Amino acid sequence: MPIEWREGDRQLHLHNGQISLVLRVLDDGTLAQLHLGGAMPADRSYRHLGPDPFEGFSNRVGEPVPLAYPTAGTGDFRVPALVVTAANGSTALSLRYRSHRIRAGKPSLEGLPATYVEADAEAETLEVTVADGPANIEVDLRFTIFRDRPVVARSATIRNAGAAAVDVDGAMSLAMDLPDADWVMLGLAGSWARERHVVERRLVPGRQSASSTRGASGHQHNPFLALRRPTTDEAHGEAYGFSLVYSGNFLAEAEVDPYGATRVRLGIEPDTFRWRLDPGASFTTPEAIVAYSSAGLGGLSDALHSLFRERLARGTWRDRPRPVLINNWEATYFDFDADRLVQIATTARDLGVELFVLDDGWYGARDDETTSLGDWFVDRRKLPNGIDGVARRITDLGIGFGLWIEPEMVSQRSRLFEAHPDWAVGVPGRARTESRQQLVLDMARPEVVDHLESVLADVLGSAPIAYVKWDMNRNITEPWTLSLPADRQGEFFHRYILGVYELYRRLTERFPEILFESCAGGGGRFDAGILAFAPQGWTSDGTDAVERLRIQWGTSLAYPLSSMAAHVSAVPNHQVGRITPLATRAAVAFFGVFGYELDPTVLDEEQRAEIVDQIAFYRGHRELFQHGRFVRLISPFDGERDRAAWLVVSPDRRHAVVGTYRLLSRPDPGPERLRLRGLDEAATYRVTTWPGFADRLSAANDGERSGAELMTAGLVLDLERWETVVRGDFWARLFVLEAVPSAG
Ligand code: GLA
Fold it and tell me: 371, 357, 384, 358: which is closest to 414 by C-alpha?
């Protein structure tokens, strides 16, 4: 049994040999969290790890008692997990144990995305009810442990058991106390077209955080935080990962107290949140995931990748090979007609592309960013035979057809805005701030969600559509909703995202065969919450290969390759003007869900031939790229930031592709080796280089090598010594490793 209750110690131990969580009901009823981390033996008492006896905070005010769900105003002065303003205005709260239940499997969270199990035997869930008497607040704390994963999932439901309304002013999904502060905090930060760069800082006394107040998780920070020991690297040492299964405003924070203990909090951003609870009403937080690794950051990513790929993503497309697609955005922007699209699709089909995506500009009268969002009917000036007409011409070519939509938005110049000006988010009497010349629809209003479901279902049902790119291109300003009274406006942001989830749920259920890809000006809402509805996301509008190395590296800390759409785009690159070789662009984009974002009709013969080879290569290794284990080798954030290397290896370790990248070449370089990881040391691999041309690099490496050699001596990587003059900057090479049957 992975969840054990020791009556005598009033101790609950969740364990599975990979992770342990020990909770104990202290003498005064406080629920303490004595340990969360490395596996510890079952059937033992750990009460000595906590304050014992504990008569409450009376004589221990301010001491770092490790709490499962901390509150404020009753002796713990650190940041709280839960703040409730009671009917009398008090925010003092102290939660005491009432009861607990252990059940097989994992319950779903109504209206919210969450990880799941396919059979009850995969997990066990503990639900502990704690309560505050004077405030009449009950809280159900849920902890799920998975049988085979070093992961615990947490959420909480807060209930008003009193006779008067109260306000929840902050309800974290997770709070976790660690006994020391010898940690480096890792976050994923950036901006548009450069999302999720790795940022690290040593923990110091006080609070350090990442957050969003934009209405979406955002380009700037990601609802993910990791802690690693200063000595932890990719392959060794302890690390924790905290991921919020949520796409709205969030807070991810570590606080170090005067005694050097660390508290991590993860949940809905409290400054932009206030939830009214009438008598009997309850509020459920989003789910938070905590993963533990004793095998470095790589081990942490392994745990999160497989959980997200196998038990967060869902639906028809969860496990299916994703099509190699071409998207017309950077090829045409708004300037196209049906013939132009068919021309692009035909050329792309001839190169091996499997699906064509029609991006922005097909609806209303949209020739630029100033009009038509919300008018989800076809623009017959551009597409006289409708979406169906162009879709059929393209599917007749033998490839799939996909469509871009941006459901949550409206242009002031649109029929929708004319008909329903009050559907746009804004505060009466206050000017609305436009961004990208568009406004946001009030997804907190059920009639808006109903309308969008109906018009979008009409579009999606009107033609053979195999794929949808769901975009969201601006953040929320002047937050306010007509659907709530003044004293409930604090609910707006969360209700907005619940509305988004509801629309996603309805459309994905109505169109189970459609592959949904999420997008938000690139990666502005790339999080575990959206992954529950769309198994892949447009990782970034930054399509430059050099920038993408950093984005994909950072993203891979938490998210699997199967979630990261990665496209080869034209040069000079549209975001940074950089010119990189076509082979390098592909060598980066292969490590994700592969596609193109360029005009293939303007390429010369040689480039087309190269693309044919690229697509054949990706298709030949697609299973590996989409479901293999991703191993990071050389970080593009380290040293002079001009090197990177990684590999992907099959679960049986018989097949791998290594990517190695040199950004800037330098004069007079020395010899270099690339030591691999994750292979079978007893196996013999046939190594071949890609692109496949005879040069000194392939001469040095191509052939049979033992796994042991590849992981200790490594590949011979004297790229610069041999090739600087020929190849210049932005040089990439792949190595394909295939295990050969052993001689004995
Ligand atoms: C966003 C997306 C792009 C493209 C444009 C269209 O920026 O990230 O890929 O779809 O919108 O307007």
Answer: 371
Mean pLDDT of 206-216: 98
pLDDT over threshold 70, residue 282 = yes
With a 6 Å cutoff on the Cβ, whether 538 touches ligand 1 is: yes
CA dihedral 600, 605, 606, 609 (to 10 degrees): 70
Residue 521 CA from chain centroid, whole number: 15
The Cβ of residue 139 has, within 10 Å, a number of other Cβ atoms equal to 27
pLDDT digits (tens, 9 = 90+) for 130-142: 999 999 999 999 9
Q: What is the CA radius of gyration of the chain?
A: 27
pTM of the model: 0.98
725 pLDDT band (50/70/90 cuts)? low
For ligand 1, say whether the CB of 592 is within 6 Å of any of its atoms. no
Q: Can you tell me which residue has the tokens 């709070």?
A: 175
Distance separating alpha carbons of residues 115 and 529, to the nearest angstrom: 9
Q: Please name every residue paired with 660 in a beta bridge, in sequence order, or none if there are none.
A: 645, 733
- Decide whether any atom of ligand 1 lies within 6 Å of the 195 Cβ: no
Q: Whose structure tokens read 């938490």?
A: 558
Considering only CA atoms, which of 168, 169, 167, 172 is closest in space to residue 156?
Answer: 172
Q: Give the pLDDT confidence of 423-473 residue by residue, as tens digits.
A: 999 999 999 999 999 999 999 999 999 999 999 999 999 999 999 999 999
The yes-or-no verdict on residue 696 having pLDDT over 90 is: no
For 231, counting Cβ atoms within 10 Å of its Cβ (0-12 exposed, 13-18 middle, 19+ buried), the class is exposed
How large is the angle between the packed helices 338-351 and 605-620, nearest 10 degrees?
A: 60
- Give yes or no for a contact between 127 and 100, defined as CB atoms under 8 angstroms apart: yes
Distances (CA, A) of 221 to 110, 370, 716: 26, 28, 37
**Residue ranges of the alpha helices (H) in 396-533?**
415-419, 446-461, 492-510, 528-531
Which of 167, 177, 442, 471 is labelled catalytic? Answer: 471
- Of the candidates 555, 119, 515, the residue with the CA atom closest to the CA atom of residue 320: 515
Task: Identify the active-site residue in 177, 527, 541, 680.
Answer: 541
Contact 530/513 with Cβ under 8 angstroms?
Answer: no
- Cis before 230? omega within 30: no
